[in-house]
Amino acid sequence: MSDPVRTALVTGANKGIGLEIARQLAAAGLRVWLGARDPVLGEAAAASLRDGGGDAQFVRLDVLDPEIIAAAADTIGADGGGLDVLVNNAGVVFKGDGPPGKADPGAVRRAFDTNFFGALAVTQAMLPLLRRSASASIVNQSSSIGSLALQADPEWVYAKVKPLGYAAAKASLNMLTIQLAAELEEEGIAVNSVNPGLVRTDLNGRTRGAPVEEGAAPAVRMILSGDGRTGTFVGPDGPEPW
Q1: Rounded CA gap, 152 and 159, in Å?
Q2: How confident is the model at residue 82, as a pLDDT?
């Protein structure tokens, strides 16, 4: 008897790194749920993966809406009963974010709403499904911008990049990883943060960085490795400093 197909949910998966993570997981044989706010874009993204031979489905998911998050969990649970992998990928950078002395407080709050509180809400909603898995994992898409150690290093290559809202939200996401890994360790659910590196996406106007295939690789490697790591922060070249 063959092993059951593993199931993954990727948030913010209708484009960019999220779509590429979903594509690579589907190519590896996982059944992938693409979470996105826009049904038209989400369905089109899922269809593109199916056209390539992947097992992919769209599920409406707005990380700022508790009712939509709950409905997504119900949809996934009703389909197969559980979830093996959660990738908290949805992330935004808002106009008005910047250094502490200049940042628009509203932009900082909105950065936290999506990049931290959204990930927390989705994780809490999906935990009952993840607990049904024999080998579950959660991957939080973080950033080197969220590293306190690197932000404090004046010689760091991005030392002058100080978007307070985005950086602080990613640092908080790393704290979620550390605390949740400790909370879930005895249940065998791995929780890790991943830094995709600088990637050409809508966040930077597609002007700089590596292609999305490379940006997706750290998260996909973490998911497929099955090595039991938990409570870590890794990037394209290995461990990242908190």
Answers
A1: 8
A2: 87
Residue 158 annotated among the catalytic residues of the structure = no
Which residue of the set 15, 102, 160, 170 is catalytic?
A: 170
Note the residue count of the chain: 242
Has residue 63 been placed in a domain? yes
* Amino acid 166: pLDDT: 97
- Catalytic pick from 95, 158, 160, 166? 166
- Quote the pLDDT of residue 98: 95
Distance CA 104, CA 99 (A): 9
- Buried-state track 117-134, b at ≥16 Cβ within 10 A, e below 16: bbbbbbbebbbebbeebe
Residues 7 and 34: their CA atoms lie apart, in Å, by: 11
Average pLDDT for the chain: 94
For 49, the domain range is 7-91+123-142+177-233
Q: From CA 42, how far away is CA 49, in angstroms rounded? A: 11
Q: How many domains does the chain have?
A: 1
Residue 149 falls within a domain, yes or no?
no
Torsional class of 99: left (φ above 0), alpha (ψ -120 to 50), beta (otherwise): beta
The amino acid at 195: N
CATH of the domain at 34: 3.40.50.720
Does 225 have pLDDT greater than 50? yes
> pLDDT per residue over 82-108, tens digit each?
899 999 999 998 999 999 999 999 999
